[in-house]
Structures are given as C-alpha cells and as structure tokens.
Amino acid sequence: MKSLLLTAGLFALSFATFGQCEEGETSVLFEITTDNWGYEIYWELTPAGEACGGSETVAWGGNYSVGCNGSNAGGGYGNNTTINEGPWCLTNGETYTILSRDSYGDGGAGFTVNIASFPMFEFQATSSSETFFFEVNTPPEVDGELHEIHTPSTVYIGAIAISGEVKNLGSTTIQSMNVNYSIDGETMGSTTLSGLNIAPFTSHEYSHPANWYPSSVGDYELALWVTNINESWFDSVPSNDMASKAISVIQTIPDITPSYYSNGNTFSYDVIVNSSDQVMKPMDIDFQLNGDLWVINLGTENSGGSTVRVGNPGTENQTDLWQQDASAAHFMSLPSGIAMGNEDSFATCPSVYDANHDGGEPFTGPSLWSNDPDVYAQPSGGNGSHLDMLHESPLSLGIAFESGNSYWVYDSFNNDIANYNFSNDHGPGNSDHGDGEILRYQGMGLDEINTNIACHLEFDSERRWLYFVDGGNQRILRLDVTTGSIGGNPNWGPHEGLALYKKVVGFTWEEVVVSGLVEPAGIDVVGSSMVVTDHSNGDVIFYDISSMPAVEVGRLETGEPGIMGVVMGPQGRIWYCNKDLNKVVRVEPSNVVMAVDAIQGEVEPLVVYPNPAR
After folding, report:
1. Which residues pair with 270 in a beta bridge?
2. Could you tell me whether strands 437-441 and 500-505 are parallel, antiparallel, or unpaired per DSSP bridges?
C-alpha cells in the first residue's frame, strides 16, 4: 500500500508543475490544520466511491504509517500547524471525497477545500474514520446567505435585539445589502448596511437597528433575510437568502427582594433536591431559560464533578437527572461554578490546579458543554462530550455568562478576572482551541479565602457591569466591561495556541461592598438589587446598588453555614445551594413585596399579595 500511495502522491504533485489546468478542470488546494497530535492524522483525496488505498486515489497526506487502517505510529504532520497540500487539477462538476483517518480516534484534522482559490468547503474530523464529500464548481458571482440567526431562541420580554450572520458565498465582495426581519410573517424592520467589506467566503455579524418589542409572552416565528446585495436585486441562489427561528418570549425575573426583609414576613425553606437526588457538595446553581435548574457537584479531583438537572423544580411534576461526563476528571475537575448560556450550552470552571494530574505545569480552565442530555455526558470522539476548553485559569472559583460563547472567570491562581470567548466550539470531544480569545483584567488586588470557597460572579447585561465576590478581601467589586483597551501580553501563559491572549488596561472598577461580610461566596443581581451569600454563617444579604457604595437593606439568617451559589429564579424567589448540607433550597416569603423600581415598570402595580398556593 505504501508503494501505491507514494506513486499516487507524486502523481498528484505533478499537477502543479504543468501550470494552468486544462479546459474542464479547476485548481483545488487543501489547507489542513492539526491539533496537539498531528502525527495521528492521515488522509486521501479520491473520486467519490473510491475506497481508501484504491487505485484511483488522487493524493494522500499526513502520516502514511497510520494509513487506511488508522494504526498508531510516529511521523507525519507537526502539532498545531497549517499545511497546504496541492494544487490538483480536478474535473469540473465531479464529486470527490476526503478520506480522513485518525489513529487515536478523536479526529483533530481540519480541512479547508479551496476551489479556484476560494475556500468553498470546510470539514472537521471528529473520529477515527470519516468521509467528506465536495463537488468541484466555481462560486457564482453574487450569493449572500443568511447563515445564522443569533437572537436566542428564548428571550425575556422587552427590547429584543435582532441579530444575525450573513455569509458571502459568491466570488464578489459584498459592499452593501439590505437586512430585513419579520415576526409571524409581518415585516417589522428593513435597513441598508453600507460600507461593508465582506470578502468571498467570509461572514459578517450584524444587529438590526430596530429592536423588536413583543406585546406579550408567547411563541413567535422570527425570519431574517438579505436583499439588494451591492445595489442589485439579483442573487444567484435566492433559496439561502432567508432563515427562520422559533422564539419563545418569557417574563423577566421580578425584583421581589423586599419580600425577604419586610417586617412581619415569614419564610418557608423548601428543599428542592438533596443527597437522595445525588446532590453532593453542590458549589453553584443556575437556571436554564426554559426553567430547568442545574446544580454543579464538586466531586473529587480524580472523578471530576457532575451535574443534576431539575425539570419543573419545586412542582409536583419535578424530575431530576444526574449526569457525569466520562472525562470529567479533566474537563470538569473540581468544578466551582456553572453558568447557563442563552441557547443550547453552558460552561463550568475548575478549582483544580492541574487537570492533567501529572505534577507538571497547571493546565486547566473553563469548559463549554451542551445542555442536550443526548449530547452532554454521552460517548463522543475520545475527549468526553465537552464542546470546548481553554486552559489558562487554574484554581478558578466562579464563572458568569455574558453572551454568545463569552464567559467571565474568577482566576484565583493569577488573582485576576479573565474573559473567555470560546468563539466557535469544536464539537463534542474534539480539541481545536485555536479560535479561543482570552482577555485578562489585572491590578484589582484580588484574593480568595481558599479554593474550597467559591468567588461567584454575575453579569448585568443591561448596564454592562460585572459584579463579583472577592472573598479573601471580604468585599464585592464590579467591573465596567465597556471600558479599557487591549494592552500587552500577560506574564503567564498561554499554554496553547489562541487567536487572542492579552491584558486589558485602563478599565474602570469599583468597590461595591467593603464591610459586613465574613466569607462571601454567592452573588446575583436583578434590577437595582443585589444578593450575596455568606458561607461562614449562612446569611443571605440584600443590597441596593442604585448608587455606590451599595447599601445593605436586609439580611436573611438561615442559620445554616455552608451556602455557596445563589440565584433569584422564577418569580423572583431566592434559591441557594448548601455545600455542607448537600441540598438546594428555595425560600418562599409569606407575602410578596415588589421593589420600588420594579413597581414603576408595571402597568398595574401590585405591592403586596398573598403567597400563591403551591
């Protein structure tokens, strides 16, 4: 087989020596990217239907010792590199295949197929043996695709931003276009975007200038489409100009924090899940937008953490699902925090020093996961089911979601706050982290209590402030994420290739609370109210953050030390997890009292009313 493939490889290379392709053929070139284990990769270019190692093989590359059977051997491509292979003159209109092999079984090779210099196809290998198909055709002159709708599928009622992504699949640069959207078939907005420079086979993300204001909660159909590209109403492929998405509009979380410190109110402490539901050393909780409650269990360094997903929490129809990824010892080692994203993913952060557990340099950081139980904690390529992981924050003690695949992490190893953008995830069990972006916010004098007590964070998306616990200094801080500029390189890391790894300088931060706390751990923000938990005594403390420094307005004494994460959940109720007592609790007030700013936003203000029957 080696002799056959060597001959084929030399024959393929000979194409390039003859200059231009003959009539009826087009030049095709591959850009191949490798992960940390480039020697595991082998591939062949064949006509469609040809077996690996067959006589019609056009070209091959990578480690020929791996070969068609995916054997393990040294040699081949380097690690984390990009290799150009070709060009070859291939027949127009014909379909060809890339036969990808990986000796370990987790894929790792990325293939970009350039046809007549245009990057028309992209494939990512994820397993030991895969076949990718492409047809040799040059792109049309004008083809704008509405590639993706970025508006989340579940949103809170109010001003809803309409955003999407257009991909240029034509051969001409897009300089202007109209972007439009409709709700349930009724056009709501149309505008012209000019001054663009969308090169062929690149994408452009945009936000429509006209927000959508739904009149009520419910389910809607959102459609986005693009027209009038470069001031011409002609598009070669009109079928891809539009995309649609089902949108569920839900009620916002009301601010009922006065209910927890108003004179005369009494409280019931409802245990939602506990050790009988496999809640063990819970470090944090968060709600998915569909109402499911997620609990993150600490586990051990060797076992890794686990999650408990609670459906219809606190109702007669409550369900719970415990799951643990097969590779949690690396990708979810001693998790301290969990943050649910807008769509179909969530992120966790590890309080472990080194997720490789080999006594070497620390190599760990936050991981991205699917919230689909048929994907999360299910078998995949070879690296568990994680969607992405970036390795620059050992001993991280909290995580908060911002938008897209962007999260904020309390990094106690470096004593800073780090913004992690996973960009495009690599899919379950893969290992391409090259598009990751990390920004470090340093110089705030951060310090943790110890790595057993979380320093949680909460992002205020409306006001663009990040609130976070600085436990060792017994204070709460906030960071204005709209301030600062890209500075120099951090003095630690990176430990892998990244698209961006820099410090941010000149940013604004403030002390929010500097007294009255012993072991602060959990935090949440709704409107002008903030809630903080104290691990030392089990207190839940309420603050007015309408001005700085924040003013403590009330304190709920649970009498149960060990509280970590806290969230103001559905209907504004307080939910918290107690690590020491292995339980998640919802606190129900006897009467509900709305915060003043929340009342002002209501059409029919209602200040006090009886607790509804459960």
Report:
1. 586
2. parallel
Element (H, E) at 189: strand 186-193
How far is Cα 559 from Cα 577, in angstroms, rounded to an integer?
A: 14
CA angle at 391 for the pair 387 and 395, rounded to the nearest 5°: 115
The count of other CB atoms within 10 Å of the CB of residue 612 is 8
Find the mean pLDDT for residues 579-603: 82
R_g of the chain, CA atoms, integer Å: 27
> What is 392-417 written as a DSSP string?
--TTEEEEEEEETTEEEEEETTTTEE
**How many alpha carbons fall within 13 Å on the CB side of residue 132?**
21
Of 144, 203, 137, the C-alpha closest to 169 is: 144
Nearest to 283 by CA among 217, 230, 350: 350
Beta bridge partners of residue 563, listed in sequence order:
578
Residue 388 has pLDDT above 50, yes or no: yes
Number of continuous H segments (helices) and E segments (strands) in the chain: 3, 44
Q: Which helix (H) or strand (E) holds 287?
A: strand 282-287
Q: Which residue has the higher pLDDT, 599 or 134?
A: 134
Higher pLDDT, 426 or 414: 414
> pLDDT tens digits, residue range 479-527?
999 999 999 999 999 999 999 999 999 999 999 999 999 999 999 999 9
What is the C-alpha separation between 194 and 229, in angstroms, rounded? Answer: 10
**Residue-range domains of the chain with CATH:** 2-135 (2.60.60), 144-250 (2.60.40.10), 257-610 (2.120.10.30)
Which residues does 347 contact at the CB level (< 8 Å), separation at least 6? 338, 339, 341, 366, 367, 368, 369, 399, 401, 407, 420, 422
Contact between 462 and 414 under an 8 Å Cβ cutoff? The reply is no
Distances (CA, A) of 439 to 337, 392, 499: 19, 10, 11
Check whether 382 has a pLDDT greater than 90. Answer: no
Q: Tell me, what's the pLDDT at 104?
A: 86
Please tell me the pTM assigned to this model: 0.85
Return the structure tokens found at 327: 């590779």
Mean of per-residue pLDDT scores for the chain: 92
Conformational region of residue 579, where left means phi above 0, alpha means psi within -120 to 50, and beta covers everything else: alpha
In this predicted model, what pLDDT tens digit does every residue of 190-224 receive, in sequence order?
999 999 999 999 999 999 999 999 999 999 999 99
Residues 6+ apart with CB under 8 A from 462: none
CA distances from 6 to 88, 102, 368 (A): 16, 19, 41
Containing H/E element for 418? strand 416-421
- Cα–Cα–Cα angle for 594, 597, 602, rounded to 5 degrees: 70
> Residue 577: is its pLDDT beyond 90?
yes
3-state secondary structure 547-608: CCCCEEEEEEECCCCCEEEEEECHHHCEEEEECCCCEEEEEEECEEECCHHHHHCCCCCCCE
C-alpha span between 122 and 298 (Å, rounded): 38
Tokens of 513: 């609370």
Strands annotated E in 15-109:
25-33, 41-47, 59-62, 82-91, 95-102
Mean of pLDDT values over 289-311: 98
350 Rama class: left (phi>0) / alpha (psi -120 to 50) / beta = beta
Cβ distance 457 to 398 under 8 Å?
Answer: yes
Q: What angle do CA 480, 485, 487 make, to 5 degrees?
A: 125
